[in-house]
Design goal:
Blueprint lengths: L3 H17 L5 H8 L22 H4 L7 H22 L1 H23 L9 H14 L4 E2 L8 E2 H18 L7 H17 L8
Antiparallel strand pairs: 1-2
Length: 201
Amino acid sequence: MFPQAVKHLLIVNVICFVALNTPGIGDYIFAYFAMFPWLNGIGIFPGEPYIFYPWQLVTYMFLHGGLGHIFFNLFALWMFGTAIENTIGTKKFAQYYFLTGIGAGILHFLITGSGAAVIGASGAVFGILLAFGMMFPNREIYMMLIPVPIKAKYFVMFYGAFELFMGVSSLQTGIAHFAHLGGMVVGYFLIRYWKLPTNLQ
């Protein structure tokens, strides 16, 4: 039910969520492990908070701002990631997850420039969503509030178009839409470069 990479990612995310919301250490964790804009300054060793450190490209993926944020990200990781890991193997899945998450963070700041700190696994999760849509395009997905099933390929197309619209229009602040798109873009090229299986179902 829980393949190795998905299971460990779920566990580590929950541990980090608890730590981030623990008085006394939460502020420190946010200051050094959330991903801050490069224009704030770049550091090598911990010293000045609220600037960019290279490890933040990885650590930001394990921090979440609230119960809703972490629940939906981890639910999607389990729901879609399980099938992908079972298909391509634990090692390749882990590589895919981290590369899409890192790429999402880079693309977000390249496009938006400066701005608020970014946290959350959403970029990697959107990469997983893209992979699911490419590997299992005709598998039906049942979503809350939608009375009919939706094929994965159409669900991914809709979500990608929605994120692009929201990112360009800037109608909703506080959400890193270009990080979501970045995860999908990096995921697409990884799937093609690695020649991962597609159209399995």
